[in-house]
Amino acid sequence: MVEVVVLALADDAPAGGGCGACPGGGGACAAGAGTAGGATVTLAPCAGAPAVPEEVAACVRALAATGAAVELVTATATAEIDAVLARLDGPVRPDGLAWPAPDGVRLVLAASEDSQVRAVVRRLVRRYAPPPSRRPADLPAGRTVPDLPALAILPVPGPAGTGPDLVRLLGLPPDPQAVAAAVGAGRVQRLDLLRHDGGSVTLGGAVLGQQPYWHARVEVDDVVLARPDEPLLVCVVTNAGGYAQVGGLSLAPAADPADGQITVAVAVPVPARRWGRRRPRVEVRRATGRAVAVTPRDEVAVVDDGVAGTLARRRSWWIEVGAWAVRRP
């Protein structure tokens, strides 16, 4: 019997709320979850806990109808996410490292934003990345993490009425029934993971700039895309085609999430004369490689998988080929 955990993230739920008997110590009770043979799953929120989105309830019902053993966990804190991820561990290794099971519990992540998907993958990396001093011989070359467990991403409409952009960018199942079918089919596609020296990960991409001219040195492997003395409009570091557009222009339309390459694009204003007048045009420079470094001259705005922040010093990304994975029908 396939064992499935549906993990929903409740940002607004009170920490430790709920009845205490619910999975994860908070969220909604799933009466009948964990039964098989097409059982009807009834979802009833506990007092003080967030209501279960209809998309989550529909996915749980669809999974139970396939005969899977289904459990719903609504996590209200990082510790509760980690408790779910611990269930993906394989047998205890002689070296004592936590290591994912090749085919154990299947995880469905209900998410409304890219940032939620990134947060869970970041916790997976934190769990399974061995310290450099304990690097095992069976860790693939060029990688700092083993093959991470596959995620089925269940899109749940957020404040803007849409789910994670990653679902569209990666062509993932768009509705609860299709997600349940993907979990049952067991088809896994491994994707490249971007890690960076800030200690986190990037799944779709990061956009730097989108403000009046700024300056930075941008290097992809040994190629210099931009020098500090050049004005920049925007810089995109991505692993998914169509991640960013500026003025209707797609900066990285050919980015492939499974080709072992980071795609980097910079938009540079270039003066041009037309009909005797100087009119700026935008030049887009692109490069692919295994690593990229962006060194801003001054603080610059950055949006990384939907999370806004600023960057005031050098940031380096590198690719880890096939490190994370998604489920498809």
SSE inventory with pairings:
Layout: E1 3-9, E2 28-31, E3 42-45, H1 54-65, E4 69-75, H2 78-86, E5 106-111, H3 114-128, E6 150-155, H4 165-169, H5 176-185, E7 187-196, E8 201-202, E9 205-214, E10 216-220, E11 223-226, E12 232-238, E13 245-246, E14 249-250, E15 262-274, E16 277-289, E17 291-296, E18 300-304, E19 307-311, E20 315-328
List the keywords.
16% helix; 40% strand; Tumour Suppressor Smad4; 5 helices; ten-stranded mixed sheet; 2 domains; globular; alpha+beta; six-stranded antiparallel sheet; 329 residues
Describe this structure in words.
This protein has 329 residues and is an alpha+beta fold. The protein has two domains: 3-185, no CATH class; 201-320, Tumour Suppressor Smad4, CATH 2.60.200. The chain contains five helices and 20 strands. It has helices at 54-65, 78-86, 114-128, 165-169, 176-185, and strands spanning 3-9, 28-31, 42-45, 69-75, 106-111, 150-155, 187-196, 201-202, 205-214, 216-220, 223-226, 232-238, 245-246, 249-250, 262-274, 277-289, 291-296, 300-304, 307-311, 315-328. The strands form four sheets. Strands 1, 4, 5, 6, 7, 8, 10, 11, 17 and 20 form a ten-stranded mixed β-sheet that branches. Strands 16-15-12-9-18-19 form a six-stranded antiparallel β-sheet, with no helix packed on it. Strands 2-3 form a two-stranded antiparallel ribbon. Strand 13 and strand 14 (249-250) form a beta hairpin. Helix 1 packs parallel to helix 5 and helix 2 crosses helix 3. The chain starts with a strand and ends with a strand. 44% of the residues are buried. Residues 12-48 have low confidence and may be disordered.
